[in-house]
Design brief:
This protein is globular. The protein is mostly beta strands.
Length: 116
């Protein structure tokens, strides 16, 4: 059974940076598309960024484009989200997700809080 563990969250001031990591185990990571989602209090979970299995396709939500960078290291079973110029509106629980056909795994989520 697949397992995803996020790390790197925390509290940062507006304009600051954080890097989130997601380590995968229990499935063939390099064959899965990977995504970062977030959910703010009282709001629906939203897709932040996605990357294909071989990193050939990458996409971002408009709200984070030019501020966030997603990348993966298939040799380490790791997904990374580099976040810069953070805004209070980026405050949320961030989740990584692995998808391939009918397989779908989620991490437990990690809190990111941006103070103004």
């Amino acid at each position: 059974q697949g397992h995803l563990v996020e790390s790197g969250g925390g509290l940062v001031q507006s304009g600051g940076s954080l890097t989130l990591s997601c380590v995968a185990s229990g499935f063939d990571f390099k064959t899965y598309g990977m995504n970062w989602y977030r959910q703010a209090p009282g709001r629906e979970r939203e897709l932040v960024a996605g990357i294909s299995s071989a990193s050939s396709r990458i996409a971002y939500a408009d709200s984070v484009k030019d501020r966030f960078t997603i990348h993966r290291d298939n040799s380490k079973n790791m997904l990374v989200l580099q976040m810069t110029n953070l805004e209070p509106e980026d405050t949320a629980v961030y989740y990584c997700r692995a998808q391939r056909l009918q397989s779908d795994y989620w991490g437990q989520g990690i809190q990111v809080t941006v103070s103004s």
